[in-house]
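Reopening this one. Same input as before:
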Amino acid sequence: MNPDSIPQAEDRLLARLRAFGLLEPPADPGLDDLAALATRVADAAGAILLACDGENCRLIARHGVSPAVSKEILAAAAPFARDLALAVEESPAPAGSDSMAIRVVAGAPLKDADGTVLGAFCILDRKAHSPDPGLLAALESLARQAMHRIQARRDRSELARARIRLGELTNPSWNDGLRRAVIDALPAHVALLDAEGTILAVNRAWIEFGRANRLPDPEMAVGQNYLEVCRQSATKPLDDAGQVLAGIASVLAGETAEFSHEYPCDGPAEQRWFRLMVTPAGRDRIEGAVVMHIDITDRKRTEAILERERNLSDSIINSLPGVFYLFDAEGRFLRWNRNFETVTGYSSAEFARLHPLDLFAGSDKQVIADGIAEVFHMGTAHAEASLVPKKGMPVPYYFTGLKVTHEGRPCLLGMGIDIADRKHVEQERDRLFNLSADLLCVAGFDGVFKQLNPAWERT
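Same output, byte for byte:
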């Protein structure tokens, strides 16, 4: 990269981060959760999410690596933010490092609904390898979920800015010219109503929307009564027009400080959604209301995609061979796979009321309690214990636990694998070891005997 272009690239990247609300505190812990989940699914050293402009990248979420990610790692991750398809790379270790240094092994682009690439979601490991297709599909799904969270954050930031501007419209120190300039600068469709609901003014976005949708002269809306228009459109008290009518009337009467309602408003060639916001106007008394229609189509599309991604995530979790679980520090199960219900015999409703320790008995209960405490204290742990089903005999399992942050609170994410067959093999091995008339021993590479069978005592 040309050194003279670095400041411009940095400015562009900061502008993109600011547009998505990624420079505003607090950080989204949900992105770190997705990085932790990718790390666990890939059985890798860590994962990172980056925002990039060319080769200029910034870390926006991570797991398993320090905040001071090396320039070599960022450089290796940058190509994944330029490709529109999932990319895989068997990258070498950074120059001058040992063979076990962390390197990028796979990545997927972070793309918005329009296909614009914001950055990359990358898996890091200490060995170069090609992930299997199932893992790549999971990574691509996690990248989409991460981008949906980022887009939702952008929508919340835009809504917050709109609320601020909406409040400014009633500033009594502003003259009509300044108020008109602010109204026209808003991307939302805005109408000012008097105390009776008559439209006093509309902004440029309102007029342009009306013309684009072939409505009668939008400027003629001034002078009409908004409440009467809603009343004529309402066919049922609870349809969209009926709810808007009741909401605006409630604000004008001083019964409600604010009213909002989301509704569909399809165009000639596309499905659209809007959010109506109504706030009172007037300082000492209510003199009218400000009505804003905000286009939330992108958010609704994102929510629909996110729902599909969640269904895919559930499918991946439910396809795992063992049991999957996520619970908080109080022991409340937040997610689990279908196999966990199958092997324990508990229903989904029953699981929501269970504590993890309810699934164990005897000394195993303390083993699991200690393991859970270790996860929340040290970050990770594993244990062997017998899972006690609702009906039937206990089954030995190998459990893992990883501390993650979910919706702003610490949680434990993990899996359990049935080791009954392994235990049976170990018991049979020990039985034959003890019954053999031959002299058998177990020794370490240092030549020291670790175990002798009873035949030694008979010699």
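So the earlier flakiness isn't reproducible anymore. For the record, Confidence is low (pLDDT under 50) at residues 1-6, 95-100.
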